[in-house]
Amino acid sequence: MATTPSKTAAALPAKQLARIREQLKECAASLGGEVSARARAAQLAETYLGLDDGGRHEFLRLIALEFGPDPKRVATAHSAYQQAVGSPAQWDAEAALRAAMRSSRIRILTQFNAIPQGVKFLVDLRADLLRFLDKDPELKALDRELENRLTSWFDVGFLEISRLTWQAPAALLEKLIQYEAVHEIRSWKDLKNRLDSDRRCYAFFHPRMPVEPLIFVEVALVNKLSDSVQHLLDEDAPTADPHRADTAIFYSISNTQVGLRGVSFGNFLLKRVIDDLKRDFPRLKTFATLSPLPTLRLWADRNPEVFAACFAPDLAKIAKHAGIEPDADALRALLPKGEWAADARLARLIEPGLVRLAARYLLTGKSGDKPFDPVARFHLGNGARVERLNFLADTAAKGFKQSYGMMVNYLYEPDDLEANVDAFVREGRLAAVAAVRHAAKG
Question: Where is the Malonyl-CoA decarboxylase N-terminal domain (predicted)?
């Protein structure tokens, strides 16, 4: 049964819809030479950009539903292949089946890719597609094909890594402010501090999107593991000598393009950055993160029995000192507000329970067969290990709201990465130090 566009979206007039359909057919047929094909694709792109949400939804439905493989051709090719299996004609039949399965959608997407700014157009088009997809599952086939194309076009072999400095063009620096997704950049002074001599910022770029960072990572060159993001972001802290640092802390990793969801290159960026840092700063021995636990509170709210168990040993003392009812629900309401952190004795009472909660969340919280925490999925999937849990490491309002101020260090130990990835993929085993495993059982 066909899914209709949302009621708030205006449908395209019949004449305009028919005209777009004909343009798409011409584009899929690849009529004429390369210049004609690019002109048609450019015209279609311009048409798409001029549509409102309802029109864009119908445009994408046209491509998804009317430009797939021809079922009759596929059935004929499949029957011919089955009959040819084991004979000299098998390989030709296989090629014919593969050609029959190739949809016209692919040709349309490839035509868009060829126009100026075509790569960025397709990335933004997929961002629209992802928005519509939740309510219109018939777009899924188009999304799969577009994701597949983007994965090929954004292969890490095509990407360029660049270090971004304060001398970068203002337009690019503005994009860092715009795209920073972990710790908000509050001002130009804040940004300048993050690009100082004891800091590094690296980004991946695509040659066809030279002024659009795809993902960037912010690094602090320090001594020993960091346990406070506020300290790392302190604009008034003295600048350290990066050549005396022994530790590189990755404290923010931001994907910038919604349309590239599912296209993974963050792990390659980190490995490239580690190689560059080791070359430039031979004293560096430790490569680790100071990472948020962005869904800790969400998980705790969904698992109140685990929350209660983690705080049970200290709940009566906490409640008495905080002036709240001695039950876990009252404590769960108190923690996100953050005012309790100013009371040193209350903070000491709360710390053991929060450490236990964070440890259980990381090591036992699941989404399917993967860690519930999205940042943990990324770093543990790249071979890092949970090294240390940090109490009151993020005392910003967002930090308390998401994770009660808790953060975690993931350690990248080059000699262990491959074994950790293998254990994670094959067995779902998470690499973590004994202290964190002990806390999870406490």
Answer: 67-154
